[in-house]
Amino acid sequence: MLPGSIQITGETLSGAEVKDICDSLKENTVRLLSVRGCQFTDRDFGRVCRGVAESHSLAQLNLNLGVVSSITRTKQLADALKTNRSIQTLL
User: Fold this and answer.
1) What is the mean pLDDT of each run of 10 residues along the chain (91 residues)?
2) CA distances from 67 to 12, 27, 28, 42, 55 (A)
């Protein structure tokens, strides 16, 4: 399957939606992930970061408008970016 995109703005994401995002990242079927302005739990943010770390297809990541809202989330994102070598654009 060719990599696609996941673009969600201003939504509260459920655990099931986060699971689908993480599964797509791990299966390398996402080239662009944009969850700008979305709300989800710290646990789910950590799950997304682990998916980002494992993805080899992700080229663009958009987490702006308050998604990275704490030091803990900043550290989780930094750890994911240390591992990921495919991201070219980070917002």
Assistant:
1) 86 97 96 96 97 97 96 97 96 95
2) 11, 23, 22, 10, 20
